[in-house]
Write a structure and sequence with these properties.
Number of strands: 5
Shape: elongated
Distance between the termini: 42 Å
CATH class: Mainly Alpha
Mean pLDDT: 90
Strand order of the largest sheet: 4-3-2-1-5
Number of helices: 3
Low-confidence stretches: none
Largest sheet: 5 strands, antiparallel
Order of helices and strands: EEEEHHEH
């Protein structure tokens, strides 16, 4: 999730005017603005959600002695990652309207990495739950 802060999330180039709109975690702006280009838009919700998600993930790893807390933090992290993806969609929609509407934009690596983080978070929750079930079954055997 920290890599989302540094990689572009979405971009779109208009071939006729050679204007390019790039969405990063902090701004939605033109790389080579024309005379009638819109002012850069701040996209701080994407940066805040991805940084908070990374912090929750690190804290979740440190809670290895309490699996129930890990599961709760995993669900919170799931919501934060989904929020990051949703904010990326929202601001890419704003970017679509900034340049030629007929040409679609391109999602970059910064968009696909939260999807990977979401998958890995779901797998982590699954294995934490499995560990808790194993510990409970061993307690029953004693």
């Amino acid at each position: 999730m920290l890599s989302v802060l540094f990689l572009p999330i979405w971009s779109k180039t208009d071939p006729s005017s050679q204007q390019t709109v790039v969405l990063t975690a902090t701004t939605l702006s033109f790389t080579n603005p024309g005379p009638n280009a819109a002012a850069p838009t701040t996209t701080w919700p994407i940066a805040a959600l991805s940084a908070l998600s990374a912090a929750v993930a690190f804290f979740e790893i440190a809670q290895y002695r309490n699996r129930f807390n890990q599961l709760k933090l995993g669900m919170l992290n799931f919501l934060l990652i989904v929020g990051t993806i949703g904010a990326g969609f929202y601001y890419s929609g704003i970017g679509e309207r900034m340049v030629n509407i007929k040409i679609p934009g391109v999602f970059e690596a910064g968009f696909y990495l939260p999807t990977l983080a979401l998958l890995l978070n779901l797998l982590a929750n699954r294995f934490i739950r499995r560990d808790e079930q194993l510990v409970r079954s061993m307690d029953r055997l004693r």
